[in-house]
Design goal:
With 254 residues, this protein is α/β, with parallel strands linked by helices. The chain has a single domain, classed as Rossmann fold. Helices cover 35% and strands 22% of the residues. The chain has 8 helices and 6 strands. The chain has helices spanning 12-24, 34-50, 66-73, 110-119, 138-147, 165-171, 191-200, 216-228, and strands at residues 56-60, 77-80, 95-101, 121-132, 175-188, 236-248. α2 packs parallel to α3 (66-73) and α5 runs antiparallel to α8 (216-228).
Length: 254
């Protein structure tokens, strides 16, 4: 039986460019970083709860540098690869911790990426991956549909439903897999500010074949639809669902 080819939905080059943009804006006045902060704090809290002391770690997607700095302050040797291609095997397999911030929302072969993460662990090593899930950005989705009601183009990435994640982890050979979610709600005065925050946090468009930009009329419809969802204070709430995947490589190294 011949396996079907993996469809190319995302562009590795565009993934790299969106990370580079986020990193270049780190620390600038007004630049958003709340998702990276949440994922970093969550990773450190889980490590403390699990009493998992990392001696050698691989950190992926940490464009703010906060998680890397925290782990190094604890005496951990950290190899930082913010732009790694998760769809290719990593050449080293001796990490007792791998932390992934974002990234998994824009890979073409998610099961393959999960297999590569497990293979890069030392026996008994722990992997922890955070990314935004399928319940994210309802206000933005509604605005995009309102902008192009007849023939909407693909402008928002297809996102993983966390209910499907346990089976993906089992297929990838993760031991003791755990999937959980939590939500962040952020309030926006405008659609443009939301889009700017997404780009600041490496969540811009990474499609291999991105749609053409909105025309003036479509953009106006999108802005109007977003504003129509605003609360009495004039701000529109937007939801970010954070999915966290946790698992290990077996002590036997399988």
């Amino acid at each position: 039986m011949i396996d079907a080819p993996i469809p190319t939905i995302f562009s590795p080059h565009r993934r790299t460019m969106r990370l580079a943009r986020a990193k270049s804006r780190t620390g600038l006045p007004g630049a958003a970083h709340f998702l990276a902060q949440d994922m970093t704090e969550d990773t450190l809290e889980r490590l403390a709860f699990l009493r998992h002391t990392a001696r050698r770690a691989l950190v992926l997607g940490d464009w703010s540098g906060a998680l890397t700095a925290s782990l190094r302050a604890q005496g951990c040797e950290v190899e930082e690869e913010p732009e790694i291609d998760l769809e290719r095997p990593y050449p080293v397999g001796d990490f007792d911790l791998i932390a992934v911030l974002g990234l998994l929302d824009a890979v073409n072969d998610l099961p393959g990426a999960l297999i590569h993460l497990r293979a890069a662990l030392a026996p008994g090593g722990l992997v922890m991956a955070h990314f935004i899930g399928g319940q994210s950005l309802p206000a933005l989705r509604a605005a995009m549909l309102a902008a192009e009601p007849e023939r909407p183009a693909a402008r928002i990435h297809p996102l993983v439903d966390p209910r499907a994640a346990p089976s993906l982890l089992q297929r990838a050979g993760w031991k003791d897999p755990v999937v959980d979610t939590h939500a962040l709600t952020v309030r926006y005065a405008s659609l443009d500010r939301l889009v700017a925050d997404l780009r600041d946090q490496a969540l811009g468009n990474a499609f291999a074949r991105p749609a053409a930009p909105f025309g003036k009329a479509a953009l106006a419809r999108a802005r109007t639809a977003f504003a129509a969802r605003a609360a009495s204070d004039g701000k529109t709430p937007e939801t970010f669902e954070i999915v966290t995947l946790t698992g290990r490589r077996s002590l036997a190294g399988t």
